[in-house]
Design goal:
The chain is α/β, with parallel strands linked by helices. It has helices spanning 15-29, 39-42, 65-74, 93-102, 137-144, 147-156, 178-195; strands at residues 2-7, 33-38, 79-85, 109-110, 119-120, 126-133, 164-171. Helix 1 (15-29) packs parallel to helix 7 (178-195). The radius of gyration is 17 Å and the shape is globular. The relative contact order is 0.19.
């Protein structure tokens, strides 16, 4: 399997980095070709240009080489993995920009008219999203409605043709003990294995 793995956390040594490294190692150990991207370390440019704001017309060639590379890669994946914290109910800006600049018309979906239904173009049949959070689950769901669940499982991935979205949240991270983190990493390994089973 050819899998794209994307990390969005700016601080080296974060628990998000540990999750990412664990998943990438597990997938490679299972014979997968993993295209692993630490978006912050690579300096992925997240800001859209005016020319990139189309939703119906097929996107032209990206002017930025990194964006062009990511578009070419994502079009030929069997699965996707995203690792990021919950910041203000959103992914970090670098990953939001990645979605907006990479998952464009003609690469990730086709839309005949602005009012029409999209046709997803990605060949990746499934995705694993690993989130960290410092918000307790009952508050996240009760007060905020779990916005990251909506973003990934309703707004983004099904739109581009990825029907199987598996999302795991590790919480609360800032006050977690070493034993808890070790158990979370073991869970991440199991979820990575299940992604390719």
């Amino acid at each position: 399997m050819r899998i794209g793995a994307y990390l969005a956390h700016p601080r080296p040594g974060s628990f998000n980095h540990a999750l990412f490294d664990t998943v990438v190692t597990e997938l490679r150990g299972r014979g997968c070709q993993v295209l692993a991207h630490d978006l912050c370390a690579e300096g992925f440019p997240p800001v859209l240009s005016a020319d990139e704001t189309q939703t119906v017309r097929e996107a032209g060639r990206a002017g930025d080489e990194q964006v062009a590379l990511h578009r070419a890669e994502v079009a030929a994946l069997d699965a996707l993995v995203f690792v990021h914290p919950n910041w203000w109910g959103m992914p970090p800006a670098v990953l939001t920009g990645w979605v907006q600049r990479v998952l464009v018309p003609g690469v990730a979906y086709k839309l005949g008219t602005a009012e029409g239904e999209p046709a997803g173009l990605l060949t990746a049949g499934r995705a694993l999203v690993l989130n960290t959070s410092d918000t307790p689950a009952d508050r996240e769901e009760g007060e905020f409605g779990d916005p990251l669940e909506s973003i990934w499982s309703a707004c983004v991935l099904p739109y581009v043709g990825v029907p199987d979205v598996r999302r795991i949240v590790f919480r609360t991270v800032s006050d977690s003990a070493d034993g808890t983190r070790a158990a979370w990493l073991a869970r991440a390994r199991r979820e990575a294995a299940a992604l390719v089973a």
